[in-house]
Here is the input.
Amino acid sequence: AQSVSQHNHHVILSEAASLELGCNYSYGGTVNLFWYVQYPGQHLQLLLKYFSGDPLVKGIKGFEAEFIKSKFSFNLRKPSVQWSDTAEYFCAVISFSGGYNKLIFGAGTRLAVHP
Amino acid sequence: NAGVTQTPKFRILKIGQSMTLQCAQDMNHNYMYWYRQDPGMGLKLIYYSVGAGITDKGEVPNGYNVSRSTTEDFPLRLELAAPSQTSVYFCASSPGGTAYGYTFGSGTRLTVV
Here is the structure.
């Protein structure tokens, strides 16, 4: 079955620092990948998604992610974080089984940005 | 506002009690999902539905039941609440297919004591 690993459970950064959150998936075929963000006390919101084409995907709020097929990775990046980026970030992959697609999530990375 | 609506937002249950978590969407989405979120574990899929009358188990279905009598509603039933079911529950919907992300509700925080 398809699975997702996020390596960093907690990340602490200062404002203006650069961010990279790791995500690896298990399946070697065609993949559909997502990054979601959950701000404190809120529900999940879509940051960006990759289906095909340009492996560098631009999302909202200055985030981007790069799909590297040879490394089974889909890391999330942001050149300069802000205090408002404090949130939990989830990588997710579409899993096909039983004829239907389902979104499978990683364990999440909790990001704290200090002023 | 269009989207996914979950009720209640908070609930405390005693062990052995039952309850239904409500989820409704007004986007005419065929696919609906229930996830539970536990600290450090991400979101685990409990049940999903691909249309009215069609449901199937996800990763962690034990202790839960669902029904989908209409396109709009996808309630989650806990029959005999246990402390292990203390969690935050999210409902989500999608038009179907792989080209779409999911729209999530605001969640239900459930505590079983």
Remarks:
- The interface with chain A takes residues 31, 33, 35, 40-45, 48, 50, 56, 58-59, 90, 92, 96-99, 101-102, 104-107 of chain B (CB under 8 Å).
